[in-house]
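Open question from group meeting: does this chain pack into something compact, or does most of it stay loose? Before anyone orders reagents, we agreed to write out a predicted structure and look at it together. Recording both the input and the output here so the notebook holds the full record.
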Amino acid sequence: MYLNDVQREKFYATIGLDARKFDVHVIRKTNQSSARLFPVILDVDNPLFLEYLENCSRENLQLLEIDQKNISDFEKKIQKLLKTFFIVNYILKMFLLEPIYTENEWEVVF
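Structure tokens returned:
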């Protein structure tokens, strides 16, 4: 969601929204809801989580620009492979951040 919305940042601006702020808000709210259902959730408030997410976004935008370059198809494929590797690397880093255990909060009535 975040990567797609950042690609459409201009659209969000036309309707008065900052795509990044909006998505971070949605991610946090979704994570809060997930805490009610799952025993473990991602720590989306960890500054590294948002840093890695933003890095994914930057790499994704660069990935989309590769087709516009005046280079050989082979070079494009190599560059796309590298950008994809970087994105997967950041996603793994997000996933490997220390999670939040929520079972102790299951007794709280929301």
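Observations to bring back to the group:
Residues 2-105 form one domain.
The chain has five helices and two strands.
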